TrEMBL record:
Region spans: Disordered: 1-21
Species per Swiss-Prot/TrEMBL record: Prosthecobacter fluviatilis
Sequence ranges assigned to domain CAAX prenyl protease 2/Lysostaphin resistance protein A-like in this UniProt record: 366-452
One Gene Ontology MF term: hydrolase activity
Identification of the protein by name: CPBP family intramembrane glutamic endopeptidase
Length: 462
C-alpha cells in the first residue's frame, strides 16, 4: 500500500442541505428499508421451500457429482496398467464422496440424482429397487424413472420431449444416465472428461486460492503496521445527521423501486420482453442517486458524499481496489467457515440463480457476465457504499455503518442465510475501502474483480 498516498483532508465546514424535517424522513426511510428486507427474506424463504414451482437442477449437487466423476477418472488414469489398477482407490474415494453428496440432498429429486451418480461410480445401472422406492414416494418422479428405464431399454434413445423434460429437471446428471444407458464408449468418455475437467480445475483453484489468501494476509499485516505507525488513515468525512437522513431516504427509495415493480410484473405475468425486467432497476438507481440533489444537497456535497469522484486518479484508485480485494480474501475465508456452521445447523446451502445462466447458452453467459462484472459493481456500490454506508455512519458512527450496511447487502442477495457471513465479509471490506480511499472507484474495482473471478470459475466449470 506504500504506492498510494492518503487522500487530502476534507474541507472543514460545509453548509447543510436545505432539508425540512430530516429526522422524520430518516425514520420513515429506515422503516421502509426494514420492510423491504423482511419482504425479500420472506420471498426467498418461499422460493427455497418450493411452493409447487418447476423442478430445476440442484447446481451445488451437480458440481459435487461432476467432481466425484472426475476424481474417479483421475484415480483410474493414474493407476499403473490403466483403470483396473486404480479401482481400489477409486472405490474408496467414490464412497467418501457419495457420503458428501448425500448431505447435499434436500428433496426426492436430489435423491434420484444421487442414485444415478452412485450407479455411475459403481460401474452399474442405478439400483432398480431405489428407483421404485423413489417413484412410489414422489409422484412427480414417476415419469423421470420411466424415462430412465426407456433410456436403458433403447440404449439412450428416447423421444425428444421426454429427454428435454428429464434434462431440464436434472441437468448434467441426466447426461450421466444417458451416457451409461447408451453404453457408447465415446459418450461415456465425454461425460467422464467433463467431470475430470471440473475436478482438475477445483484442485488447481484451491491451490491458487490458498496462495491468494496468504498474500491477502500479508497485505492486511502491512496495512495494520502502517495504520499503527500513523501512515495509513482510514476515515470518511463525517456527514451531518441531516445529510445522513437524505442519503437514507435515497437508499430506501432505490430499494423500494428496485423490488416492488419487478415483483408486480412477475406476479401478474405481464407479457414483456426479457430486457424489460431491468427497466425498474435502472429507474431505481437513477432516482436513488438523484434524490439527495432533489432534496437540496449541493452538487459538490453530493459528489463527495456518494464518492463520485476520481480520488487520486483512476489508475491509483483501481490499484487500491485490487489490493483491497486481495486483503478481503482472509476475511472471506472466515465468512465461509461461519457459513459452514450455518449449513450444518440448517441443512441449507448457498445458491445463486446466475449459476443456471452459466449452465445455459452463450448469450445467457454473456448477459450474466455483464450483469455481474459491470452492472452489479456500479449500481450496488453507489447504493450501498455511496448512500447507505455514509447514511448509517452519520447516525451510528462508521463501525455500525459497516456492519449494518453489510448485513442489508448480504440479506437481500439470493444465496440464502448460509451465504450471509461470506457476503457480509466482502461487503465490509468494500466499506473499508470506501473509508480508505473515499472514492467509489476502489470498492467498485474490488467488487468487479471478485465477481469477475467467480465468472471465470463458472465458465471453466461448466
Amino acid at each position: 500500500m506504500n504506492s498510494y498516498p492518503e487522500p487530502p483532508p476534507q474541507p472543514g465546514s460545509k453548509p447543510e442541505p436545505t432539508v425540512s424535517h430530516p429526522k422524520p424522513g430518516a425514520v420513515l426511510a429506515l422503516c421502509a428499508i426494514i420492510a423491504c428486507v423482511v419482504f425479500v427474506v420472506r420471498m426467498q424463504s418461499a422460493h427455497r421451500a418450493g411452493g409447487g414451482e418447476e423442478v430445476r437442477p440442484n447446481r451445488v449437487l451437480e458440481l459435487m457429482a461432476r467432481y466425484a466423476v472426475g476424481v474417479k477418472e483421475l484415480l483410474q488414469l493414474s493407476g499403473n496398467g490403466g483403470r483396473s489398477a486404480g479401482a481400489g482407490a477409486s472405490a474408496g474415494a467414490s464412497q467418501a464422496m457419495l457420503v458428501e453428496v448425500k448431505k447435499l440432498c434436500r428433496s426426492s429429486e436430489d435423491e434420484l440424482r444421487r442414485v444415478i451418480l452412485e450407479g455411475w461410480l459403481g460401474d452399474a445401472w442405478p439400483d432398480e429397487a431405489a428407483l421404485d422406492a423413489l417413484a412410489a414416494r414422489n409422484e412427480g418422479l414417476r415419469e423421470d424413472v420411466r424415462t430412465l428405464r426407456q433410456l436403458r431399454a433403447l440404449r439412450g434413445k428416447v423421444a425428444d420431449e421426454a429427454w428435454e423434460k428429464l434434462h431440464g429437471r436434472h441437468g448434467w446428471l441426466a447426461d450421466l444416465a444417458r451416457a451409461q444407458a447408451a453404453g457408447d464408449g465415446v459418450a461415456m468418455k465425454n461425460v467422464a472428461q467433463a467431470g475430470l475437467k471440473t475436478a482438475v480445475f477445483l484442485m488447481c483453484a484451491s491451490f491458487v486460492g490458498l496462495v491468494a489468501v496468504v498474500g491477502g494476509m500479508g497485505v492486511l499485516l502491512l496495512a495494520f503496521v502502517r495504520w499503527r505507525d500513523g501512515k495509513l488513515s482510514v476515515t470518511l468525512a463525517m456527514r451531518s445527521q441531516a445529510e445522513g437522513g437524505v442519503l437514507l431516504e435515497g437508499f430506501a427509495i432505490f430499494l423500494a423501486l428496485f423490488l416492488f415493480p419487478a415483483w408486480l410484473l412477475r406476479r401478474f405475468s405481464m407479457p414483456l420482453p426479457g430486457w424489460a425486467a431491468y427497466g425498474p432497476a435502472v429507474v431505481a438507481l437513477a432516482v436513488g442517486m438523484m434524490w439527495p440533489l432533489w432534496r437540496g444537497m449541493q452538487r459538490s456535497q453530493w459528489r463527495e458524499a456518494l464518492g463520485l469522484h476520481r480520488g487520486h486518479g483512476l489508475w491509483r484508485e483501481m490499484g487500491a481496489g485490487v489490493l483491497g480485494w486481495l486483503a478481503s480474501l482472509p476475511m472471506l475465508v472466515l465468512g465461509m467457515v461461519a457459513a459452514s456452521w450455518i449449513m450444518k445447523l440448517t441443512g441449507e446451502f448457498p445458491t445463486h440463480p446466475i449459476v443456471d445462466a452459466f449452465a445455459g447458452s452463450g448469450w445467457m453467459r454473456l448477459g450474466a457476465i455483464l450483469l455481474a462484472v459491470v452492472w452489479a459493481p456500479v449500481s450496488e456500490e453507489i447504493m450501498f457504499r455511496g448512500l447507505l454506508f455514509p447514511a448509517l455512519s452519520a447516525w451510528l458512527r462508521w463501525l455500525m455503518g459497516v456492519v449494518l450496511s453489510a448485513f442489508v447487502f448480504a440479506v437481500i442477495h439470493p444465496q440464502g442465510w448460509a451465504g450471509v457471513p461470506a457476503i457480509m465479509m466482502l461487503a465490509g471490506s468494500f466499506s473499508l475501502l470506501r473509508l480508505w480511499r473515499r472514492s467509489l472507484i476502489a470498492p467498485m474495482t474490488a467488487h468487479a474483480l471478485n465477481n469477475g473471478v467467480m465468472c471465470v470459475a463458472m465458465l471453466l466449470l461448466w
